[in-house]
Amino acid sequence: MTNDRSSKLRLELRRGILVLSVLASCKAPQYGYSLRKHLAEAGLEIDEGTLYPLIRRLAEQGLLDSEWLQKDGRERRYYHLSASGQKVLSQLTTDWTELNICLTHILETSEK
Amino acid sequence: MMELVERYLQSVEAELSTPHKADIIRELRGNILDEIESGNTAKANADDQVTLVLIKHGHPAQVAQSFEPIAPLVASVDMPFYKTVLWSGAILVFLLALVKSLSVLISADSINPIRFLFIILGTFLDNIGIVVIGITLLFFYLGKQGVIQKWRYRNWLPKDLPKNPSVKTSISDSITDITTSLFLLLIVWIPLWMSQEVQQDLIFVLAQDKQYWRYVISVLCVLSIMHNLYRFTQHSWRKPSLAVYVLDNALFAIIFFAMASETTLFILNQDLAITMSADNPDRLRWAKAFLDAGVSGVLMVIGATAAGIAGYYGWLMTKLK
Prior knowledge:
The complex is a heterodimer of chains A (112) and B (321).
Chain A: H1 2-25, H2 32-41, H3 48-60, E1 64-71, E2 74-81, H4 83-111
Antiparallel strand pairs in A: 1-2
Chain B: H1 2-15, H2 21-39, H3 46-57, H4 60-67, H5 79-107, H6 113-144, H7 147-152, H8 171-188, H9 190-193, H10 196-199, E1 204-206, H11 212-231, H12 239-261, E2 266-268, H13 270-279, H14 281-319
Antiparallel strand pairs in B: 1-2
Helix pairs in contact in B: 1-2, 1-4, 2-3, 5-6, 5-8, 8-11, 11-12, 12-14, 13-14
């Protein structure tokens, strides 16, 4: 029960930073699997059922541009940051930096 | 290997309804093949690897749902208000059922309480489904536009909040009170709606010099119904409305105690008594005994119930701020 609650809370916490992570990773063109691998290598494991629909939603919202390309004998849909995605990424990055400072302060002061 | 992947993709496609489903499947195929390929070096059996990757992706229905999330009929933020509206709808249907059953009884010259309850239940069940579906569709449509939240919490002020929000009014009590009042009105005004032939078969009738009780009870019933209808609009008790409710029940108690103390409130139906004395003297004897002691006993019990309710709510009133 406690483990369940704990994993739900962790999932919720990670969900909040998912969009920022995906947008930041798509500065360079990425396709579904490469993006998942890129995030996993950076320490952020996201399951397929969450990541692939999320990329599509971000593309539908105009934050990512996409195009189909044929590489290594396989066609893949490549995503990269759009102009409006760039603006949102800048805003989210500022927010994240400020939040991080706040949270670090809260965690440090609560330890004393 | 490809057969398993294609079967999986077709199953996902079958669960999708979006016009972009071909595009989703095309992309999903690329992602799955990439994942299978990346794991092939570590796994000897290709089919096992495919199975593992597909299971990790999830059941086709789950995958389809993640690409095409279904909006709930009622958003969780709208649920408390949805429940309130459903209750109000149910009350309205119940009141309509009540009116219909009363009119059926009147047209059938009957005051059979069992039949009365069956007609209410039948009419209620006939209509409640349509009301629930209608309200749900309305919430689905308005909830998607965010209208409900904006409308419900517009221009509220802290000073308008109730002083005793936890002392809630009971919807079922209001329904019971309205039903009782309407049924009482129906009994009191039997001469207006029941045919002469059926009235001739009634064992008791109200004495000629006690007819004024009809008007006293009617006025009180109408006031009680109006107050109960007003209570449907209130979520919690306020002192003035609670005072009216206490007064309402206290008056009912006084009236029923006064009626119980009357010696000749009801009299035997003379035409019927003559027939009964000849055909069924035992029945006539029982009727007289009930008239002497039973009627006042029943009236005392009803009066005591009303007094008890008045006492309880009077005590509750002292607890309100």
